[in-house]
Amino acid sequence: MLFVRRDFVSTYKQTVLGPIWFFIQPLLTTITYVIIFGNVAKLSTDGLPQAVFYMSGITIWNYFAQTLTNTSTVFRDNAAMFGKVYFPRLTMPLSIVISNLVRFAIQFGLFFAIWLYYLLKGNSGIHPNWLILLTPLLVVTMGLMSLGLGMIFSALTTKYRDLAMLLVFGVQLLMYATPVIYPLSSITGKYRWVILANPMTSIVETFRYAFLGSGSFSWTYLAYSLGFTVVILILGTIIFNRVQKSFTDTV
User: Fold this and answer.
1) For residues 221 and 141, is the Cβ–Cβ distance under 8 A?
2) Which of 75, 78, 128, 195 has the highest count of CB atoms within 10 angstroms of its CB?
3) Widest CA span of the chain, in angstroms?
């Protein structure tokens, strides 16, 4: 828990607004998406209010993206501590997963407030359903997926530091291959399989379908995401265990 508190506090420790940025960032991002993708590019939102549509994608995507990028350099960033004190190395990436879960909870609260406003307003096209109960499963799946991927990249970045920069760029590109700023229904033709092959697609779509009633839901694709998560977590753990003894020597 000390690592969790450290990760959470250090993010905005020397900022004027502090934790308020947890609210400001998704709000500014949503406003930007509404202007650029909603009003300029005229991307479809399946008839849903643009604010709640984009916020639903941002909320779920940010947890995955931030956890993955932060975890990918955890061993390189904490090499000095690893060399001085012995403790279970896995606690470091786990602390990032949990601290980002706290951030997700804050941003989810913001999304929930916007969602509730449009729901009570009526005539917004929002039709939540029982799949909301799957939200904890979706969050856990994202956390474990980002943990597994993060452990793989953290092991690699101890030797190849350029991978950390490439990963940040790759995560940004991956967002456009995930239905965050557009509905899956807008992707047709021969490239649709590429989007469906992305394990984050079914998670984002299920989350959006559960709360907004728009989009698509498939047990098959959700099972695919769960299976991918299990495989990548096992693979990440194996790679981590093989290289952890040489972390302090290679960083």
Assistant:
1) no
2) 75
3) 61
What lies within 8 Å, CB to CB, of 4 at 6+ separation is: 95, 98, 99, 102
Asked if 37 and 186 count as a contact pair (C-beta separation under 8 A), the reply is no
**Stated pTM of the model:** 0.89
CA distance 149 to 155: 10
Give residue for tokens 């799957």. Answer: 134
**Residue ranges of domains in the chain:** 12-250
* pLDDT tens-digit map of 21-33: 778 888 999 999 9
Instruction: State pLDDT tens for residues 153-184.
Output: 988 887 888 788 899 999 999 999 999 999 99
Per DSSP, the residues of the chain read: -HHHHHHHHHHTTT-SSGGGHHHHHHHHHHHHHIIIIIIIS----TTS-HHHHHHHHHHHHHHHHHHHHHHTTHHHHTHHHHHH----TTHHHHHHHHHHHHHHHHHHHHHHHHHHHHHHH-SS-----GGGGGHHHHHHHHHHHHHHHHHHHHHHHTT-THHHHHHHHHHHHHHHTTTTSS-GGG--GGGHHHHHHSHHHHHHHHHHHHHHS-S---HHHHHHHHHHHHHHHHHHHHHHHHHGGGHHHH-
The tokens 């899956």 sit on which residue? 184
Q: How would you write 34-99 as a 3-class SS string?
A: HHHHHHHCCCCCCCCCHHHHHHHHHHHHHHHHHHHHHHCCHHHHCHHHHHHCCCCCCHHHHHHHHH
Query: What are the Cα distances from residue 71, in Å, to 122, 167, 174?
Result: 41, 11, 17
